[in-house]
Design the sequence.
């Protein structure tokens, strides 16, 4: 790909991520207060992809993560908040980044996740019961990282995900729900982790996904007729890679779109050119560039959304 490594403002993005963490009164920090665990995962994974994770005081982070664990075993978005499966995956991913999964009481944590599986194989996000294929992905991803996939009924979990597949080849949040790139990532990721990708019509889904690339900007949208947004670079690209259809899009044009969403002065990446930056889009921009094999970035695993070296350590005990 004809892209120069100098076009990604690595140092500025590192500075931006550290500033959001330090400046607790900033607009972004205040709006992220309740989902700080997700923010920690987005920020720290970005730093790791940029090979700058050593800047962070890992003992401080790990101690904070563990203070967010509830007696049920699940993790909250911040200290003294309620646990939810959304934050539980982020907590596990942050610990994985530091190679510290061994601080966890794996049985207690996996019991929490198993307790969220319903009769029909679906998963609720917490005790209040909302069901969504996002939670199926999270449960499967988390348990796989903990080597405890055997503790749930994976057959039923897969059956439920397949029941959310639409005639256009995509997936929604519940049966009959509209296809959306974010939900497609969750369903394809969960099917990949459980070795069940044979349930997918790869040409049909690949066609729907590659139509998300907009001719003019090169960016991806999440559904037909919507605007492009940097985060869909991740949701769409990871899915295309998992079903082996990434060669159906213009990779260089997508990389250009992401690079054009950088704040070249103060660091950070926004959803589309000239919008305000945030940690979420900074992460998905850098992760998207990593999937595009942008020079100088660590490779990221498209199913687990963690750097490949982290995944190798977990599954093969090596770097
Ligand atoms: C480990 C990467 C990772 C994820 C964990 C939470 C989760 C699992 C996945 C979320 C998948 C999802 C539904 C993503 C979409 C997020 C998003 C940008 C939603 C916006 O939707 P709309 O309808 O926006 O407001 P559009 O772009 O359609 O106008
Ligand atoms: Zn977005």
Sequence:
């Amino acid at each position: 790909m004809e892209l120069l490594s100098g076009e990604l403002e690595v140092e500025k993005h590192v500075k931006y991520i550290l500033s959001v963490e330090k400046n607790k009164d900033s607009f972004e920090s205040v709006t992220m207060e309740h989902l700080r665990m997700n923010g920690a995962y987005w920020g720290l994974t970005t730093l790791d992809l940029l090979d700058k994770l050593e800047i962070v005081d890992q003992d401080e982070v790990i101690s904070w993560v563990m203070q967010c664990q509830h007696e049920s075993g699940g993790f909250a978005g911040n200290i003294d908040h309620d646990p939810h499966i959304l934050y539980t995956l982020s907590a596990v991913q942050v610990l994985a980044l530091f190679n510290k999964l061994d601080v966890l009481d794996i049985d207690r944590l996996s019991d929490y996740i198993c307790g969220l599986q319903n009769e029909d194989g679906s998963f609720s996000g917490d005790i209040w019961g909302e069901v969504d294929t996002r939670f199926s992905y999270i449960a499967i991803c988390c348990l796989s990282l903990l080597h405890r996939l055997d503790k749930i009924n994976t057959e039923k979990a897969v059956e439920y995900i397949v029941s959310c597949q639409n005639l256009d080849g995509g997936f929604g949040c519940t049966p009959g729900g509209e296809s959306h790139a974010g939900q497609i990532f969750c369903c394809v990721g969960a099917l990949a982790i459980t070795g069940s990708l044979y349930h997918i019509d790869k040409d049909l889904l690949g066609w729907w996904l590659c139509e998300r690339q907009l001719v003019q900007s090169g960016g991806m949208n999440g559904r037909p007729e919507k605007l492009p947004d940097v985060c869909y670079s991740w949701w769409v690209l990871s899915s295309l890679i998992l079903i082996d259809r990434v060669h159906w899009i213009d990779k260089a044009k997508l990389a250009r779109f992401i690079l054009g969403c950088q704040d070249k002065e103060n660091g950070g990446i926004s959803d589309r050119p000239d919008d305000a930056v945030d940690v979420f889009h900074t992460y998905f921009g850098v992760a998207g560039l990593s999937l595009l094999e942008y020079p100088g970035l660590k490779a990221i695993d498209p199913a687990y959304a963690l750097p490949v070296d982290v995944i190798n350590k977990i599954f093969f005990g090596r770097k």
